[in-house]
């Protein structure tokens, strides 16, 4: 059910307390929050499993270790579900960083790392045909020792869709950054099925993570369109 909001909700977007503020065709409205169905993809299940294990392991940290995570968290920022900036807790930071450490094959950090930031990756050339789907970075950092490339993609979209980046999900294991073409077709087709003439568009995001600190870079975006 939708409701027309007051001026107090003029710039709000997102969900909280069971309702969602949104905008469609120039009109703002509030509706009951949708929770989707209970089915999970394999990748969603893997992510939830990592976070579940990390939440348990945080409780086993010493008081000194928890205090260190809380202290570092005070220097970091997150975003609320309505998009505003917000402080995060030590647990939030522990989960955020260690998710990428574990996802990249490492062991969860018990003490917070020294954060140095991760540069965003370069632009990339995307090529999508019936037989291949590749991403080729224009350049890579001089030292990629602790960096992994994460690639996310939407399911195949119709020609009329102009933006589906929000639907992009991880489609492959963390990749070592290289300047040669990175093959994505097998993992993409396994997750979504191959693009077709009716659904030729794939919206792609890519970013780096530091496998020793769990830091994540900014995201780059690009559109791959099926060609003959």
Question: Quick recap of the structure?
Answer:
The protein is an alpha+beta fold and 228 residues long. It contains four helices and 13 strands.
Structure write-up:
- This protein is an alpha+beta fold and 228 residues long.
- It has three domains: 2-32, no CATH class; 42-103, no CATH class; 124-225, Immunoglobulin-like (Sandwich), CATH 2.60.40.
- Helices cover 22% and strands 26% of the residues.
- The protein has helices at residues 42-59, 63-73, 90-103, 185-192, and strands spanning 2-3, 14-16, 19-24, 27-32, 77-79, 85-87, 124-128, 133-137, 147-153, 169-170, 182-183, 201-210, 220-225.
- The longest helix is centred in the N-terminal third of the chain and has 18 residues, at 42-59.
Please report the number of helical segments.
4
Domain tally: 3
What is the terminal separation in angstroms? 44 Å
- Can you tell me the overall shape? elongated
Helix coverage percent: 10-25%
Features:
single chain; 228 residues; alpha+beta; Immunoglobulin-like; 3 domains; four-stranded antiparallel sheet; 22% helix; elongated
Secondary-structure blueprint of this entry?
Elements: E1 2-3, E2 14-16, E3 19-24, E4 27-32, H1 42-59, H2 63-73, E5 77-79, E6 85-87, H3 90-103, E7 124-128, E8 133-137, E9 147-153, E10 169-170, E11 182-183, H4 185-192, E12 201-210, E13 220-225
Antiparallel strand pairs: 1-4, 2-3, 3-4, 5-6, 7-8, 8-11, 9-10, 9-12, 12-13
Helix pairs in contact: 1-3, 2-3
């Amino acid at each position: 059910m939708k409701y027309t909001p007051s001026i107090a909700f003029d710039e709000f977007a997102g969900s909280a307390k069971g309702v969602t503020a949104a905008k469609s065709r120039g009109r703002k409205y509030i509706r009951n929050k949708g929770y989707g169905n209970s089915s999970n993809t394999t990748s969603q299940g893997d992510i939830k499993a990592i976070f579940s294990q990390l939440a348990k392991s945080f409780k086993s940290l010493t008081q000194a270790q928890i205090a260190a995570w809380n202290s570092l968290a005070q220097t970091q920022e997150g975003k609320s579900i309505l998009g505003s900036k917000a402080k995060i807790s030590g647990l939030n930071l522990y989960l955020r960083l260690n998710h990428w450490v574990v996802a990249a094959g490492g062991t969860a950090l018990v003490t917070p790392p020294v954060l140095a930031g991760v540069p965003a990756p370069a632009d990339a050339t995307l090529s999508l045909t019936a037989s291949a789907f590749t991403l080729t970075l224009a350049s890579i950092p001089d030292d990629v020792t602790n960096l992994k490339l994460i690639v996310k993609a939407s399911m195949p979209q119709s020609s009329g869709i102009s933006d589906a980046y929000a639907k992009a999900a991880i489609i492959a294991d963390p990749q070592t950054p290289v300047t040669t073409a990175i093959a994505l077709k097998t993992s993409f087709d396994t997750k979504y099925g191959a693009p077709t003439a009716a659904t030729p568009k794939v919206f792609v995001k890519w970013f780096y993570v530091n496998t020793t600190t769990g830091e994540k870079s900014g995201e780059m975006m690009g559109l791959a369109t099926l060609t003959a």
